[in-house]
Amino acid sequence: MLQSIRDGSRSWGAKIIIGLMVAAMALFGVESLFSVFGSDPNEVASVNGEPIMRQQVELEVQRALRSGQVPPEQERALRNDMLDQLITQQLLTQYADDGGFYVSDAQLDQIIVGLPEFHDQNGRFSADIFRNRLAGAGYSPVSFRQDLRVDIMRQQLQQGLAFSDFSLPSEQARLAELQRQARSFRYVLLDSDNADIDINVTDEQVQAYYDANQERFERPEQVRVEYVLIDRQAMAAESDVDEDTLRSAWREQNRDADRRVSHIMVTFGDERTREQARDIADTAREALDEGESFADTALRYSDDTASAEEGGDLGVISRGIFGGEFDNTAFALEEGQTSGVVEIDGAFHILQVTEIDAPSFEDQREVLRQNVALNDVNNAFNTKVQQLIDESFAADDLQSVADDLDLTLNQTDWLARGEGEGVLSEPGVLDEAFSDEVLEERYNSEVIELDDDRRLVLRVAEQRDATLISLDEVREEVEQAVALQQRQEALLEQARAMAAELASGNAVDADWQEATNVSRQSDTALPQALVQEVFRMPHPEEGESRYRAIALPQGAALVALDEVSDGEADEQMQGFIAQMAEQLRAQFVIQGLIDDLHRDADIER
């Protein structure tokens, strides 16, 4: 179907079809086309038919980055991890739904109100803190309740599984005994510096290693990709915003912010006429113009004697407290500004804003500039995206599209599936390069919506099939691997010969190192592989030693196990070990369920 559309894309019929498509998107959104042309391009995976959207992954990535627990340079790996987590969560949620797990609105309300993260200094739930904390974490109240409901259901499921399994007291006691056990031994580390090893790598050995380890030398299917990117943030960065526009945006943003206000009030009625009151107010305003302080002027002229003694200060007010003309005047002033004479409710007022409860203009300058610039380029961005949709659909290349839209044509080196960097590392993007239409038919991809500000189209410039790299290309690597293998085998054989001599009662020339009362939890500089093997050795007879040769990543070791002791009983440690045993057992049970769900699920990504 797409072939015929592309072939006829310049015909009047195609133009009418495309015109109807554009109208549908304008009226009903791009989702209106999915039922006609297939699945949502923003879908990065599906779990038993339920989609996981690119926006979900990006939202979780941004939350993780915002938390500060993940450095920005790990963003690429984080996206893959987050997608894996979302798939597992989806499986557990589906399993919980099928099992009839349920959380009521009343339960949710009780849990939310009880969370200390949303409590004020008095330990009470605060709606303001609740909203602020959610906004800082990228949640709305509705989305938070939805995610919390699902989390609780999954917790109910996992707790039920965990509590269904247990360990016997005798098992816990035996585990504690093994954990506190200590071993004393002697050891010799062997490497090529203290052993006479003859390395002779033959062609036959190289060929044999290459044949036996061909999976190490397979090159996967790869593509070189071209792509163009429209980035609203980049467009905004190049937009000029003048100072007046920034200040206007700042005033608009903070026009309803709470502020501290002072006033001078001159009343009229029984004691003076309106004209007399106006004359007094004008005189007070002239005194301010001549440099008299607001506090002194208020003390001289204001009929509000209580506030006059405080320099006219009315305290911090919110919009709506005084209402009407008072609000219109007070909330139109910037910090430090003084109004003219204003008639409000039977009196003349002069208002001064002494403080605004909002970040200063300078503190907000960069954010304001970015927001104003984004708004300024919004129409240009949408126009350019529409051009990209129209031109990339029918074009036989991307260079012409890039030229027409004044975009940069980016080109990559060879990439396998999942190897993209930058924007190509975002979920599902590089998958488009390996789709049938893009890879086999060599069409431009659909316009990919990375987020609200970025749109991307890619094309495969070149493709090469998966292949086995020839021995000639990797010969040096293979020879090094064979030499290392020979060195390791020679060292281990030497250690075995020494162990056999010692077991027969003969002496060997060895520079023994002592390790006394080493436990499984000891903080030791010894190789971990060495310690693990020592604790696998059988107990020696009283007054005797057990000998073993141990293979290490960089050599070999000869060990003489001299003594095994029970260690000191520690109730606290025993309780901790019992608790850890239960947790590990529970984790194994839950992981077993997750593995089964993954094995039986229909997962596409």
UniProtKB/TrEMBL annotation:
UniProt xrefs under Pfam families: Rotamase, SurA_N_3
The protein's name in its UniProt record: Periplasmic chaperone PpiD
GO molecular function annotation: peptidyl-prolyl cis-trans isomerase activity
Chain ranges passing through the membrane: 12-37
Membrane topology: Single-pass type II membrane protein
Any one annotated GO CC term: plasma membrane
Family under the similarity heading: Belongs to the PpiD chaperone family.
Localization (cell): Cell inner membrane
Occurrences of domain PpiC (ranges): 256-355
Coiled coil: 471-501
This protein's UniProt keywords: Cell inner membrane, Cell membrane, Chaperone, Coiled coil, Isomerase, Membrane, Rotamase, Transmembrane, Transmembrane helix
